[in-house]
Amino acid sequence: MLVITGKTMVYLCVGHPTDHVKAPEVFNDLFRDRGIDAVTIAVDVAPEDLAAFVEATKGWRNLIGFGLTIPHKEAVVPLLDELDPTAQRTRAVNTVRRLPSGRLVGGLFDGLGFVQGLRDAGRDPRGMSVLVVGAGGVGRAIAFALAEAGASSMAIANRSRPRAERLVDDIAQIVPGVSVDVGSIGSGRYDLVVNATSLGMHEDDDLPFALDSLAPGTVVAEAVMSPEVTALLVEAERRGLTPHRGRAMRDAQMDVVARFIGV
Amino acid sequence: MLVITGKTMVYLCVGHPTDHVKAPEVFNDLFRDRGIDAVTIAVDVAPEDLAAFVEATKGWRNLIGFGLTIPHKEAVVPLLDELDPTAQRTRAVNTVRRLPSGRLVGGLFDGLGFVQGLRDAGRDPRGMSVLVVGAGGVGRAIAFALAEAGASSMAIANRSRPRAERLVDDIAQIVPGVSVDVGSIGSGRYDLVVNATSLGMHEDDDLPFALDSLAPGTVVAEAVMSPEVTALLVEAERRGLTPHRGRAMRDAQMDVVARFIGV
């Protein structure tokens, strides 16, 4: 049972909106399991209010840190004091640790979590031909991590093409040896296709991409965690493709995040 | 059982330090009893960080509001958009409601709570001769409320005399008909003596004042709520005086505060 007192430390999940976030349940279970007197709450802050909010966390002394979700993962970067190497490369952050001095250190664990989640399901990305759909914070994180995990060729699809091109350039520059280009669902043959857009979070969302060009057995992976089974995963299963839940990414990154925030 | 999700609203208790605050337990019980999906946490913010913190709450959309405790009750006043009449008179605030527009409205319920707590214990302050020791946020609130509740004469004691004088002037100006002056524990005959300092919160604190000059039966009241029984109350009881717990103030003001923040 969760009992909050004046001594309880706090961890936040900052997004806009926050109705869909699962972090409070997940982290509160973690804190309880580990016997840590800390609580996680969701904080709904719109983009125009993010800078003032992050500034305020520097003086919040019983704050452990905070997670960031849509739409703040990239916007938070210039507001922090320090970035870990992955966050620095991808210019996106999903976890911030508040040091006792008030300094804020950003890390990015979506990508590592995604790759680890694939491996946990017996799907090593090494040598795979991959399409990442979505070049926002999550897409960048996942694409970098797949490139570093040894994907042989990568394509990036994004509604706004310049953003896809920027990610292609960044990967080419930082991860040598991977073949990477702007692509689309119909433009190649893929072993793994990742939905790194937010499409699928809401019931009336369109599918993020059509599945008809994919060969049987292709892994169709979600970054969307809630709902756990999206329309995309249902449709992939129906077509004889191999669905892979966004939940796997979250489960795999819990330990890493906990270590980063020091709990 | 308290289950926090992405939809849970938030209420804060802001102080420095916050180890002693009871608001999380009290408000979380209230929310549970009323079936409200909201959670209260303590926020430890030092005086130099208060302005940035309060500014940030304007953009925190799932925030109901926040309570303020030592040492922020007066410092918060210029940071708010609006004050209720009691807060305006006393220039102190213990409760802030965040309107959906982001506007912050301050109210002060310590004083009303204190007077109501006295009445609930069968001790109407009307006609009493009163000494209030401490002229900070809580002292101001209690002194104003006692004056308005019909105390016949009032004395204000404070370590810093100018602060006591300012409170005397303010009461004289705003509440006509009450005789009010700077005083001290030995300088008069009182029916009620109130500890409105923070002395008593910590185990090794000195007594806020000596009790030897008080006549048997004098009510010795605490504004300190934690611990519930302070050394002052123990000593008062031992001497045949009438101890009155700070807890009575808190219990009496819960409903008023809940109405103010709209839960």
Reconstruct the topology from this structure.
The structure is a homodimer of 263-residue chains.
Chain A: E1 9-15, H1 23-34, E2 38-44, H2 50-57, E3 63-68, E4 82-83, H3 85-90, E5 95-98, E6 104-107, H4 110-120, E7 129-133, H5 137-148, E8 153-157, H6 161-174, E9 179-182, E10 192-195, E11 219-222, H7 231-238, E12 242-244, H8 247-261
Parallel strand pairs in A: 1-2, 1-3, 4-6, 7-8, 7-10, 8-9, 10-11, 11-12
Antiparallel strand pairs in A: 3-5, 5-6
Helix pairs in contact in A: 4-5, 4-8
**Helix count of chain A?**
8
Sheet with most strands of chain A: 6 strands, mixed
CATH topology label of the largest domain in chain A: Rossmann fold
Overall pLDDT level of chain A: 95
Query: Could you give the order of the helices and strands of chain A?
Result: EHEHEEHEEHEHEHEEEHEH
Query: What is the total domain count of chain A?
Result: 2
Which class of the largest domain in chain A in CATH terms? Alpha Beta
